[in-house]
Design a protein that fits this description.
By secondary structure, the protein is an alpha+beta fold. The chain is built from three helices and six strands. The protein is globular and about 45 Å long.
């Protein structure tokens, strides 16, 4: 009969070997944070919609025309900030193909990542540029503290943080926190 120690060694070796040839699992998110992945935007059009009336766009594709904001989950009643894990997707209502570029208008998203992310801007928020895939589901084109240098909001050249960091309602400009908290 083998000793318990030798069986533990065999089990430990088997566990190590069983991991060979597989991808390293991603690092866990820091405590109090939420890291959004492609799946977190799936079926956003089935979330609760909030229509936003047309505004003067000032050359900013992000503000041009009527649009709908989709919210993954309403915050609890009495909230003074959006909870970590809040996902907001903004879709231009006219998602037809742009005749000049052949591309549909962009989708934008913001995710309350938390854990001290974006301390120099809209604290806790991460920005996303999305595009619809051939299956109609969104794909992440870019993410982070703002768009890549190749991305602009039309003539304005503004960044996400330039507008959202100073906005009330915890940086969400299209939805009033007090109106949607339940």
């Amino acid at each position: 009969m083998s000793s318990p120690v030798s069986w533990l060694a065999v089990l430990g070796t088997a566990a190590v070997l069983s991991g060979c040839g597989t991808a390293t699992p991603p690092e866990p998110a820091p405590a109090g944070s939420y890291i959004a992945l492609k799946r977190d935007f799936a079926d956003f059009a089935k979330w609760e919609p909030f229509p936003v009336k047309e505004q003067a766009d000032g050359g900013n594709v992000h503000l041009a025309g009527a649009r709908t904001v989709y919210l993954n989950e309403r915050p609890p009643a009495g909230s003074t900030t959006w909870p970590v894990g809040t996902v907001v997707v903004k879709k231009m209502d006219d998602m037809s193909v742009d005749p000049a570029t052949g591309e549909p208008p962009p989708l934008f998203a913001m995710v309350k990542r938390g854990a001290g992310f974006n301390l120099g801007g809209a604290v806790g928020w991460e920005w996303f540029g999305l595009a619809l895939g051939t299956d109609g589901q969104p794909l992440i084109e870019w993410r982070g503290l703002g768009p890549p240098s190749t991305e602009t909001y039309g003539a304005s050249q503004a960044t996400c943080n330039a507008c959202h960091a100073g906005a009330g309602d915890d940086a969400v400009m299209s939805l009033r926190l007090a109106d949607v908290a339940r």
